[in-house]
């Protein structure tokens, strides 16, 4: 088993793939390095003497600066290195984007909707317009399970605390996200449950939903009903009859949209799990499909790599705006732009935001950027898209689903049980997590540290995603989990 790795020829550090004890002899670059300290799994050690103020190089790029002189063989982490990032930057477009060669067309078995869209699930969703009816929505969900028969995969409510007492962009965010979910093709039927006096009431929300199939989307205003639970169940019964008429059929991967997200990352995430997802992304795009990368604050420090992969200068300009808008959002709230990584990230070996971002963006693979999306904006361009959303796991994963992702791939080094509105595949960066939390983790990238090639793991992940798209339930689905969260920025009345 390989126990350490130098990722790029220019790196000044290597990563421990397993715990390494002080005194261990490491052989790299035709020289022997004696470790002067214990190096935890996922953490870095110096391959040469690094002077105070000098850049620390990983992934072939700077991930921070040495706080002090660091001797060869020493542990490198937050105690002796710091971020090298500043605030707003000026960027120049240096195009470095090559189209991927097409590969053989593949198919999954999904559901063809009346509007021509394709879905990977045939669920009935209960969407509250306002938090005041959350309990009603959950009561309807609980009692409606008797209608989960035939080709109905699930009946699920999506409670949230918003829809009223909101202003400006927060109100717009809520309406856009709810409308996006109502229109999502993974739902064969939707009950939109309103209260009646809220800001984002049903009539207002219809302006955001646009045209819809009245057999698929139904509305109920609780204040206009004598018994909203009884009436809601009657609507669900009718929706189940309609949705139950759909059956799976072969659909080209050209129509598959996959969201990509990471959370609870460790020092192996950027070496195993994220590159595997990047390989998957390239493979799907080579077959005409679409992927979406989000969590903008975790692009800081690696953003120029994405900017230069933009297919044209207009997309480059939109990516610059994407990055700077988020930096200005932090600054407008008097918050530090680079207050990242999290305590869990640091424990796993990630030392700075650049370290985290360089690992995070590995999920994007090598394809050109073909689209840049605002929060709540549905995906339009095939290929790799960048989406404006924060790093928060639930908010970002909901944003991916709202933009059209059929499935979310979620890489993690520490694990999490959460779900999103669509099947959320948990991908572990290390085998220890996979073995410990088999009730959470769907796919393990730990074997890469044991010599399994990246291309093989990416291909295995691709085959697994096709199985999920064709109906195989992920662990969160088996547990009955459905989550959603909406991005809040401003005032609550």
Automatic annotation (TrEMBL):
Cited InterPro entries: GD_AH_C (IPR048332), GD_AH_second (IPR007392), SAF (IPR013974), SAF_UxaA/GarD (IPR044144), UxaA_altronate/galactarate_dh (IPR052172)
Keyword Transcription regulation recorded: no
Keywords annotated in UniProt: Lyase
Domain of life, source organism: Bacteria
A Pfam family it matches: GD_AH_C
CDD domains tied to this protein: SAF_AH_GD
Domain SAF: 11-82
Similarity section: Belongs to the UxaA family.
Matching PANTHER family: ALTRONATE DEHYDRATASE (PTHR30536:SF5), ALTRONATE/GALACTARATE DEHYDRATASE (PTHR30536)
Protein name: Altronate dehydratase
Species this chain originates from: Blautia celeris
